[in-house]
Amino acid sequence: MNRYFDNGSTSFPKPSQVADAIHHYLTHMGGTYGRSAYQRVYEATAMVETCRDALAHRMGTARAENIAFCSNATMAINTVIKGLPLTGKRVWVSPLEHNAVMRPLWELAKHGIINIHTLPAWPDGTININALSNIDLSNTGLIVVNHQSNVNGIIQPVETIAQWAGKVPLLVDGSQSVGHLPIHLDQWGIDYFAFTGHKGLLGPSGTGGFFAKHPETLVPLIHGGTGSRSDSYDMPLDVPDRFQAGTPNITGICGLLAALQHFPQPRHTHADLLHLMNAIAQLPGYKVWGANNPIEQGALFSITHHRMTPSDMADKLYRHFGIEVRQGLHCAPAAHRHLGSFPNGTLRIAPSPYHTSDDLEFLLKSLTELSSIQ
């Protein structure tokens, strides 16, 4: 029985090949990336580039070199936000943004560098596409949209938003969507796309990065050695080196490649997830926080109970049933303010491809019994 439902925080379990690949790198390969000319380095460099190519294929872009590795999506988002010329500009955001977006933006706003505005949205946080035509995009430097909410799992129509944005740069936070949803960066016309490796892609923590359609527009966040153009103190203009100062997390990237190459077939369907949500909504005292339109429902959702706080629920689920979930604000207070679940937050349920319909039924049965536990 798989009782781990906190895959919105980090995925577990990983494919067994992830640990095998990491062990092989640490015990047999051991070389660094792009720095020297011997077999171990060749193998490590080839492995990193193979992972980059696999990510490009997974995210629907023919420009693998425009994908830069970072330690996580937070660094990727900071690189884009702080690398663009935003002084005196407006920045539009969805109402469901994570603090990985809101904190760097707030840091700029409180020093008078930018002005933050919120895009019009429906009660579940989905952008109101019809209302976008009323927005004046003049003097707008950036639009930021969370592809899949980490609170209620709604999927934003990023392709339509990209069409509306036109020449205004669009940054999509794909932390919760990549690995769960089809991604078509080139087809959608996305300017910047941040991702992490340890959630939906089932890779190790400490992996992630971003795609930049126009990398020449970004000033690097981190400066240092790249193993290339070492005769100059300026960061190289070549991508991805321009954004990969320092030794990359080769161990983690090795594990991420293994996850991409051995990604499991889902053991439950989207219909199973919707059935679980509907069944919980019928239980006395429970409220389900998800998309109003089932088509826009992603791979996670939240619940609350009128008599128990999310913290109480999480504690009882773990102590009495061994179920592991995330409770609270999920680092997204803006989302909870918009949805109406602030300040206590919610209890988040985030399955992985490894969950079966029986696992989902066990969770439902546990929630049914939870109300009677003192």
From TrEMBL:
Keyword list (alphabetical) reads: Pyridoxal phosphate
InterPro entries in the record: Aminotrans_V_dom (IPR000192), Aminotrans_V_PyrdxlP_BS (IPR020578), PyrdxlP-dep_Trfase (IPR015424), PyrdxlP-dep_Trfase_major (IPR015421), PyrdxlP-dep_Trfase_small (IPR015422)
- Residue ranges of domain Aminotransferase class V in the record: 4-362
**Source superkingdom:** Bacteria
- Required cofactor names: pyridoxal 5'-phosphate
Spell out where the chain crosses the membrane: none
- UniProt cross-references to PANTHER family, sorted A to Z: CYSTEINE DESULFURASE (PTHR43586), ISOPENICILLIN N EPIMERASE (PTHR43586:SF4)
Similarity comment: family membership = Belongs to the class-V pyridoxal-phosphate-dependent aminotransferase family.
This one is known as: Cysteine desulfurase family protein
Query: Can you name the source organism?
Result: Breznakibacter xylanolyticus
